[in-house]
Amino acid sequence: MWHVILAPLFLILAFASPVSADIYKYVDTEGVLHLTNVPTQTGVKYTLIMREKRVLLNRKLAQNISQYDELIKKASGKYNVEPALVKAIIKAESNFNHRAVSPKGAKGLMQLMPATASHLQVQDSFHPENNIEGGVKYVRYLLNFFNGNLPLALAAYNAGENAVVKYGGIPPYRETQTYVRRVLSYLERFK
Description:
Layout: H1 2-15, E1 23-27, E2 33-36, E3 47-50, H2 59-67, H3 69-79, H4 83-94, H5 114-119, H6 128-145, H7 150-159, H8 161-167, H9 174-190
Antiparallel strand pairs: 1-2, 1-3
């Protein structure tokens, strides 16, 4: 009976894009099987049935990343910014979609706002080389401004440097706090 219930679950998990979640199971007193990625019940014995995959890339994303490798290396070298950091920011900002436009109007791989792009002399935010060059230049500026403090520089990339200065740290905006954690997580995966 269990194979009838679990077989479809494992098929779905096998063909889905990799996710970051351990899967646990337990059987309650009435014999009902429960699956969860967050074991929260106290007094219940959970069994780990699937270990978290530390896979970031699917095939299409890997191709998207590799097509920008040379541009990332060039800009990273010019501005002394780690290539893995640039990839992590691009992953968080646009998922390597050079035509991405945010609801707030940010454009391109590194999601440059029009005013920022203009200040950085980026002619075309949708042009990968221009966007990466401008974005990495901006990251270097923020790293210098915040004395190499990466979390603060990332918070400023997301919320603006004035917000970080105003709060004396990462602003209390859920979006920004999540963004910083996400980029740092991607950074570890790209190293």
